[in-house]
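Q: I have 84 residues here and want to know how they pack in 3D. Can you give me a structure?
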Amino acid sequence: MKATARHPGRKIKVTARLKDRHTGEIKDYVYESTNDNIAWQWTEGNYSCDCNRSIAFYGLTLDNKAVLSCSGDENRIELVSLRH
């Protein structure tokens, strides 16, 4: 069951399939979330831009120099699919 306002804290397994448009490489980013707005998070929220998607794709930390900068509507890291 997904986390909702009625069931806070319930964990949801999420798989985001991501693609680097420059290299064609595809990776799955798998994590658990208690957020019930997962689709919004990846399309409009924090994970909708390259700065955060690159962290998921490359497994980087926030202070790593290789984190991509935000690129507006022209994301280098594309969300291919989202399962939850």
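Q: Anything worth noting?
A: Strands lie at 12-20, 26-33, 77-83. The longest strand covers residues 12-20.
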